[in-house]
């Protein structure tokens, strides 16, 4: 469990994280979604004990990160995949981590296999890695101590669609075994593919949170019937705005249940009814964050 309560981080006059509270539960992948500069990395750095909070608390498994003995065996952290020593090979980096953690070296090969880095790739220097390979290595490093909590900042950055699918499977299995995952992204479709719970942050504040289904449910319905013209008219009489959807059918600004009721009352046969799709969630994400999506000056000289 990751618990964040009333967390605030100020850099001079600038508030990077503004009274943020949330909890990430075991068995769930929680996606932390927000535009650039929204405060995701700062929040994660505070959780991982790398940046002090101005006020509020963040605990991992009930304890502040800095107070966890041998934290890598409890919490796996990947904050910056590019920060790995460029002159070492992937395998060397993992062997060094294993030695530091007192973990058998056999675990290194297991982790390399888990993240699909071949022996040949593992023996290359990290400076020759693609960003996607660095992310895989970073995930292997985070998992090395067999932690039950994972904190990953933009882990899908640089992964191709097959890589994102691979990561989704890995994190899904991890969560299904009871693990807790917090991962960030500034791209909605990555979060949508991977996460069960979604936290949306903009200008340092949580602007929406809920399960993926809840956020979709609050976002209209996609409907197709045997007579969409009659359905659009019936919906309009019920004060529900509907418009033609890409690929046929209608997009209605109401919950699927309400759309279904109108159709039933009007005797219209539906052939498809479901929550609004990702394009609408994207609209919501843009709406929720547009007030906060503005250029913010970086304060020169400010230190964590
Ligand atoms: N050390 C620092 N000194 C001053 N300002 C900082 C510092 N670190 C972060 N900030 C500011 O805090 C705000 C939040 O930054 P943060 O890196 O947490 O955002 P983010 O959501 O992770 O963005 P991105 O998706 O671009 O990584 C930004 O305005 C950033 O400029």
From TrEMBL:
It comes from the Bacteria. Residues 2-228 form the ABC transporter domain. Keywords: ATP-binding, Nucleotide-binding, Transport. The keyword Transport applies. SMART domains: AAA. Signal peptide: none annotated. Belongs to the ABC transporter superfamily. This is ATP-binding cassette domain-containing protein. It holds the Pfam family ABC_tran. InterPro entries: AAA+_ATPase, ABC_transporter-like_ATP-bd, ABC_transporter-like_CS, P-loop_NTPase. Gene3D superfamilies: P-loop containing nucleotide triphosphate hydrolases. GO terms for molecular function: ATP binding. The lineage of its organism: Bacteria, Bacillati, Actinomycetota, Actinomycetes, Mycobacteriales. It comes from Gordonia hankookensis.
């Amino acid at each position: 469990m990751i618990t964040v309560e009333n967390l605030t981080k100020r850099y001079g006059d600038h508030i990077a994280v503004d009274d943020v509270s949330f909890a990430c539960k075991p068995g769930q992948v929680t996606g932390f979604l927000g535009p650039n500069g929204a405060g995701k990395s700062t929040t994660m750095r505070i959780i991982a004990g790398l940046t002090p909070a101005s006020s509020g608390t963040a605990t991992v498994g009930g304890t502040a990160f800095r107070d966890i003995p041998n934290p890598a065996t409890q919490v796996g952290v990947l904050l910056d995949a590019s920060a790995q020593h460029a002159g070492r090979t992937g395998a060397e980096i993992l062997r060094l981590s294993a030695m530091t953690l007192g973990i058998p070296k056999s675990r290194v090969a297991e982790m390399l296999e888990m993240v699909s880095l071949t022996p040949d790739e593992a023996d290359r220097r990290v400076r020759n890695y693609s960003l996607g390979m660095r992310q895989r290595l970073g995930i292997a490093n985070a998992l090395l101590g067999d932690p039950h909590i994972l904190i990953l900042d933009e882990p899908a950055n640089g992964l191709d669609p097959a890589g994102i699918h691979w990561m989704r499977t890995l994190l899904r299995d991890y969560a299904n075994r009871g693990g807790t995952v917090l991962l960030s992204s500034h791209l909605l479709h990555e979060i949508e593919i991977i996460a069960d719970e979604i936290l949306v942050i903009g200008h340092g504040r949580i602007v929406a949170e809920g399960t993926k289904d809840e956020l979709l449910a609050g976002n209209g319905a996609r409907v197709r019937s045997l007579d969409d013209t009659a359905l659009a008219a019936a919906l309009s009489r019920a004060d529900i705005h509907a418009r033609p959807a890409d690929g046929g059918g209608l997009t209605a600004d109401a919950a699927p249940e309400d759309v279904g009721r109108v159709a039933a009352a009007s005797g219209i046969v539906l052939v498809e009814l479901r929550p609004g799709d990702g394009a609408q969630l994207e609209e919501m994400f843009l709406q929720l964050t547009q007030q906060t999506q503005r250029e913010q000056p970086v304060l020169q000289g400010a230190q964590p």
